[in-house]
Amino acid sequence: MGFQVNQYKNIAIIGCGAGGGTSAQFARKTDRNSNIVVFEKGKYPQYSKCGLPYVLSGNIPEFDDLIEFSEEWFKKANINLLMETKVDQIDVKNKLVIAKKGNIIVEKPYNSLIISTGSKPIVPPIQNIKIGEELVEGVYALRTIDDAKKISKFIEKGKKATIIGAGLIGLEMADCLHKDGMDVTVVESMSTVLPNTLDKDMSNIVQEAISEKIMLYTGYLAIKIESKDRKIKKIFIKNIKTSEEKIVDTDLLIIATGTKPEISLAKKAGCKIGKTGGIIVDDKSETSMKDIFAVGDCTEYLDFVTKEPISIGLGSIVVRQGITAGINAAGGNYRLKKGFLQTCTSEFFNIELASVGPSIKNLENSSIISGRFKGHSLPDYYPGGKSITIKVIIDKKTGCIHAAQAVGSNAAQRINTLACAVLNEMDVDTFRNLETAYAPPIAPTLDVMTLACDVASIKLKRRQ
Amino acid sequence: MGFQVNQYKNIAIIGCGAGGGTSAQFARKTDRNSNIVVFEKGKYPQYSKCGLPYVLSGNIPEFDDLIEFSEEWFKKANINLLMETKVDQIDVKNKLVIAKKGNIIVEKPYNSLIISTGSKPIVPPIQNIKIGEELVEGVYALRTIDDAKKISKFIEKGKKATIIGAGLIGLEMADCLHKDGMDVTVVESMSTVLPNTLDKDMSNIVQEAISEKIMLYTGYLAIKIESKDRKIKKIFIKNIKTSEEKIVDTDLLIIATGTKPEISLAKKAGCKIGKTGGIIVDDKSETSMKDIFAVGDCTEYLDFVTKEPISIGLGSIVVRQGITAGINAAGGNYRLKKGFLQTCTSEFFNIELASVGPSIKNLENSSIISGRFKGHSLPDYYPGGKSITIKVIIDKKTGCIHAAQAVGSNAAQRINTLACAVLNEMDVDTFRNLETAYAPPIAPTLDVMTLACDVASIKLKRRQ
């Protein structure tokens, strides 16, 4: 019997977030007999981190609703999920994962290992933000259910909340706290909101709309915190250009200034780390070390268009890497395309936005042309049409669609169509000919996607 | 001066529907100096025929709202729009269009001619449907504003309406009359609703939902009408299989059994007519006769996938042919792709549906595989997700996506993404890797589009 057990493959997975959990599922689908063990340092099995703001706003009733795969689910799938078990070391020589659950040491052998250690928040250097090693009470990053539970205690109608960072998570949180009746301020060091998602001309549409509902400081750095009884009371911010300072009263401070890959275990094990700080993986989601895979926010892979390394925490990427690593770790053969499109979307203050591909600042300005069109979701004669603005970025030589951004009605689904165009390296004139679905209550004969391409195509022809 | 005028190109356009109107606009954009004349036999300049049901339902307030380009608009664009002017003949030898406005003969020379004569309703051979040459009072097809105005007089809450034909227009009208409070019956000779748009497994979803709201007879032929005082009172229908007859009381009968291309002028002029009965056009929208173009419902072009000739009245196609013919007639160079995707959508009884590419019955059954997935528009943990079912049809040899159908949330925009895949002859495994936009309030990490492709891909691999 002992002999028989040994002939099955041992797959170890570190982390049971979306990446680790998905890997485990697809490893199981690929090899029904393998021994799969998942180490999770926290108290919760696979849950949606992206859903946390919506529990805080009340859209999702309970934190437990976010759990996508329960401990029972893993048990039924014959996956050995070790909760509250923190991995200390990957013993590459002996192919062992060494962990601790409380004071008990747990050792598991592996033939294939998948690292899904995620990322950790970047806490900006704000004076007095910590007392000792701990953040001041009332100051939180939003990464885990535990963070969210702490934040929830500070949510109170009429009280003041400040968010540092006007990226997707910062603005999602701003909307959620605003819905909770809080008086919300957002501080962003860049000159625009959503600096990593939209170009300035597109983010301006968002900025104008949200400025009516919250206090927004762009081009401001948070420099100092003032606390009372160990609780945050005020935050000092400074205009980067003019050095003018302002003091914002606040009862709650959310840090949403991005994350960095959590790579310490992988680095010690010898996996190559890339220039973005993530674990380098290939199209099999394998690291520089054979049989060691990595997925999700802790990794670095290529942008599809620029072929430059990127490390971004998008659920859509995590899941696709998880599928890939799970299949390959279990002996299957599944490859990602050569780079990620970075398709993403969000919605706040009743504005939907989405983007695909690199933003203009990541492309060589001399090699691209863009076209932007603002139109409506329905034909002009049909009541109830909503505004939608689309921007496409194309290659000046080939006419190839490299990227697109959308703000307004059904932005996400429209960007999916443009993502399909980017993936196919489709040229703008072919896209102009795409017959989009038309019916008066649903969409106009020429969708705004097509019209944005018309603008780009005309600009392209003028320069040729 | 006379000499100068003569050196400009004369462009004549027959018909000011979406096809003719769009042609005129793009001819003007292409050549600012050309003399453009448009002959329109009716009383209304370019308006949306597809919008007519929504005026009848009250969604659009007035018939005049449907006018997309007014007589003033054409005047400002320096386009000579001749209203209520019926073309009698195209004199090919002398390059003249000969028309009549009342008793006055109007002759205009052309260098390029665009025929946009549309289509006319097919009236099925129902006994007593006509008195002399006229349809019985209360019996109408819905093609023009005038038809719709006549229908509107028969719309009355609590009264009975019957629709022959459960295609897109038939079901749009059923919903509209149902919204008006009428008691609606739909009679369809085929065994399913939407026989030209969806396969049976997909149309069943629609059929089940609408059967709760209206009386639906599929597999029934309308055979006889009974009138009183020249007004319709009853319609006799017969089950095609069992020959069982039923009598349906009705105060209004809408004929929605399709249309046939209106080609008489083109045929007399010598343009080749294809096997579907439409004027054959090429990728420049040019007919078999040099300098004579044709656009829209009167034409026949290729299906993109099967390369078989098709003649279908879709606004999205009409407009794209109009753009093409307009540019080319004015001396530009613009080509359509080799075939139409036939992307289409509609919405009735709160069900959105869409499709792209040929339906299964137009593809060789032995050469294709399909994958269907029913899922939700949002992640399971986010409240308010709506049902969406997607079917993809792929080539068994190449894995290439040939067609797709969707019923449910955002069906049209999802089909647009799949239309982009069909146009790029994308294979199903590449599509599975498409990163779709994800955010909890907007879409799940793996969109139903991707999951339908997973199903097809797995079936494909099993057979390989």
Give a structural overview:
The structure is a homodimer of 464-residue chains. In chain A, helix 2 (18-30) runs parallel beside helix 9 (315-329). Chain A starts with a helix and ends with a helix. In chain A, the strands form 8 sheets. Chain A has a 5-stranded parallel β-sheet. Chain A is globular, with a radius of gyration of 24 Å. Chain A has 12 helices and 28 strands. Chain A folds into 3 domains: 2-120 and 260-329, FAD/NAD(P)-binding domain, CATH 3.50.50; 123-257, FAD/NAD(P)-binding domain; 350-463, 3-Layer(bba) Sandwich (FAD/NAD(P)-binding domain). Mean pLDDT of chain A is 95; it is low at 1-5. Helix content of chain A is 25%, strand content 30%. With 464 residues, chain A is an alpha/beta fold. Chain A has helices at residues 2-6, 18-30, 52-56, 71-76, 145-152, 168-179, 200-211, 264-269, 315-329, 411-423, 428-432, 448-463; strands spanning 10-14, 35-39, 79-82, 86-91, 96-101, 104-109, 112-115, 119-121, 130-131, 134-135, 139-141, 160-164, 183-188, 215-218, 220-228, 231-239, 245-249, 252-255, 259-261, 279-280, 292-294, 299-302, 309-310, 344-348, 351-356, 368-376, 387-395, 401-408. Chains A and B meet through helix 9, strand 24, strand 25 and helix 10 of A and helix 9, strand 24, strand 25 and helix 10 of B.
